[in-house]
Amino acid sequence: MRTENDLSFLIFPGLPIEIILTVVDFLPNSDLLNLRLVCHNLDALILSEYEICQTVTGRKECVPHKKAAYFKKCTKKLQDEFSKEIKIAAEAEGERLHAYVARHYFMLGNLYWEGLRRAPNHDQALYYYGEAYRRLDKAAYLRLGIIYDEGVILTKDNERASHLYSKYLGGRWYTNECNNAADAYYYLGRHFVNSYQASEEEKKKVTLLSKAASQGHLQALFELGKFYYRAEEGSKDFPRAIECVRKAGDLGHKKAYYWLAKTFEARKDIYQAVEFYKKAIPFMGFYETGQLHPTGVVYDLCKVYLKHQNIPGYLKDTVDLLKQASDQNISWAEYQLGRLYLKGQGVEKDTVKGAALLKKAADKPYCLHHDHDINVRMRVGIDYYKGKHIGKNDQQASQLLKFDFSFASRYFRAFLYRAKMMYEGRWYDEEKACFIQDTRQAVSLLERLAIKENYAEAQFFLVQIYLSDINVILDNDKALDLLRRVADEGRS
């Protein structure tokens, strides 16, 4: 048990009451009960925020006042499970006794799942869901099925999840937080989509997803459309796929329009792709849903516009989108807009403004998990190396082209130019604070790119070194082998 001295951080006179309440709200239930015993100053504070309730098993639980009445109501019914009063109450609500009791176990499980206070208590929630399940509560079948399906709180078990979904679908439903039949049909249908290929199972998953979709389940509509699109010959139905996904988008599904845009782009239907990209922007904006990096709609739409800029209006729309994204300090947009100013495409040519945008894009703090941030740094670094657009600056190029090796597979050009700079004596070593020439390391890096990664540009450059540099062991056989590889890549 803690002593009063251990709790001095909570009873410090100058600590605002809001901070104390926040700390208290995150403490485990047992700690709150102990605080009442060891600290008189906090006893009144705890009682002002919580009511001390008794659980079904007889434990004491600190429950916020706004949830206490509901908690006590459920608990009392379960503590008096076999009393005459409970039987009368069940009959009054038109339920059998065991179903009435099971429903209240499930309701308590929901309280713990959401969190009586700040954090959820999954162990207690699973206990009450289990008690509801043992009493044949259909809502518990669904909730436990979802838990096994998602595999976050309990170990993922597709077979167990499917069994629970089937049990749920086999009975009638109580009105509760689970969206009932639509959720059940969707999750069971999704399970079959992910787990089975046989024709009979395909029929079953389509039936289940269709039932969920007919009851307004957006994700079921979306998944059903994707199934019709990806199904094997015989089940594939492109018009129906588009119809389902379009309907999901019209009803508010966040990714439906984006999926349609990517699908039409892959099928070379650019006009349709552009229309759906535009529709997707209000849902996903500059960031892809569920991701932390700026991919998604605006980036992909700009790529389509630039690739097909000969179509009237597309270049102007690109500039408008890039300006909006640049105003939000998104680096890839600043870089692309800068290049347009440098070339005078879609805007009046302005090399000063273009160079400034490129530098601004590269100077931002970046994250190695953000592909577009890294790509911008690489491109601007190469521009500094070549003296293209923004003036030659080897120190800046070295800083921007310094990548971790784990990213080589995606950014070979960065490593290629890093090797070139080392070979030419233009690589700036920050630790030594000077430019260095390191032929051995440059050749080692080039050999990794050329031989292990089969990167054609590195192969071609390495051949020149093998044949001409007296500081490197001349190896005609290696050079000939690399030349064959370069030729196989289609380079003359």
Question: What features would you highlight for this structure?
Answer:
492 residues, mainly alpha, Serine Threonine Protein Phosphatase 5, Tetratricopeptide repeat, two-stranded antiparallel ribbon, two-stranded antiparallel sheet, 26 helices, 4 strands, 66% helix, elongated, disordered N terminus
Give the distance, in angstroms, between the N- and C-terminal Cα atoms.
Answer: 79 Å
How many β-strands, per DSSP? 4
How helix-rich are the residues, as a percent range?
A: 55-70%
Quickly count the domains.
4
What is the 3D form? elongated
* Alpha-carbon Rg, integer: 32 Å
Instruction: Tell me about the largest β-sheet.
Output: 2 strands, antiparallel
Helix-strand string: HHHHEEHHHHHHHHHHHHHHHHHHHEEHHH
> Ranges with pLDDT <50 over ≥5 residues?
1-9, 171-178, 287-294
Structural class: mainly alpha
The percentage of residues in β strands lies in under 5%
Number of helices: 26
The side-by-side strand order for the widest beta sheet comes to 1-2
Mean pLDDT: 78
